[in-house]
From TrEMBL:
Residues 1-19 form the signal peptide. Belongs to the TrbG/VirB9 family. Keywords: Signal. InterPro entries: Conjugal_tfr_TrbG/VirB9/CagX, VirB9/CagX/TrbG_C, VirB9/CagX/TrbG_C_sf. It holds the Pfam family CagX. This is Type IV secretion system protein VirB9. The lineage of its organism: Bacteria, Pseudomonadati, Pseudomonadota, Alphaproteobacteria, Sphingomonadales.
Length: 228
């Protein structure tokens, strides 16, 4: 019996533990953060009491189920679009876990209450697969585009451009960084995957129109190609 216990203990020690991933701040508004997606990872999510955290998955990914370890002290609600959810902690909520199953992936979270430095929105960014890279490389680049900006002056970027393959956007340091959307194939707005690199918000593709939202403010950037 003692030998079996020792063997089980050794097997447990030899079993690799899942990677634990914290959200990362960009160079813009620290409240807008990202998770770098990895299979078999646990994502640690701090939620400030009295606030919710929006968690955005890949555009078009559909949430199928959400399981909370403590559903009395915590709330998790999917958006109507299905690729985003909102997590809120009750007063004195204990640490717990959460599993989110979508039509593509399964995500495991460790939830805890944080104060002062908890994010307001976390967006997942995904590594490009080999096939994605090959498909992108096979496409001829578009002509460089310019953009017509309309909407709230407080939210307008000070710079937006693309090289036919990649879009770069810059906001002033004092401006809040908005959530970025584009229309999906069904005409609905979907969160755009992008990363903050050297002060620029970079999207590794080109859209005919982008929508920026922050609170009730909204800005659109419609792409056009200048005639030579």
């Amino acid at each position: 019996m003692k030998g079996r216990i020792v063997l089980i203990a050794l097997l447990l020690l030899a079993t690799p533990s899942a990677a634990q991933i914290d959200s990362q701040r960009g160079t813009g508004d620290w409240r807008l953060q990202t998770f770098s997606y990895e299979p078999e990872a646990v994502y640690t999510l701090d939620v400030e009491a009295g606030h919710h955290v929006a968690v955005a998955f890949a555009a078009g990914e559909q949430i199928q189920s959400i399981a909370l370890g403590d559903d009395g002290a915590w709330e998790a609600t999917p958006s109507g679009r299905g690729d985003m959810m909102f997590v809120k902690a009750g007063t004195s909520a204990p640490s717990t876990n959460m599993t989110v199953v979508t039509d593509i992936r399964t995500y495991v979270f460790g939830l805890s209450t944080g104060y002062g430095g908890a994010p307001w929105m976390v967006r997942f960014v995904y590594p490009a697969t080999v096939s994605d890279t090959q498909d992108q490389a096979d496409l001829p680049p578009l002509e460089q585009g310019r953009y017509r900006i309309r909407g709230s002056r407080h939210l307008r970027p000070i710079e937006i451009a693309d090289d036919g393959r990649r879009t770069t956007i810059r906001w002033a340091a004092a401006q809040p960084m908005p959530a970025v959307f584009a229309e999906d194939g069904s005409g609905r707005e979907a969160v755009v995957d992008g990363q903050v690199r050297d002060g620029l918000f970079v999207i590794d593709r080109v859209y005919s129109e982008l929508i920026f939202r922050h609170g009730r403010r909204r800005v659109t950037a419609r792409r056009f190609v200048s005639e030579q």
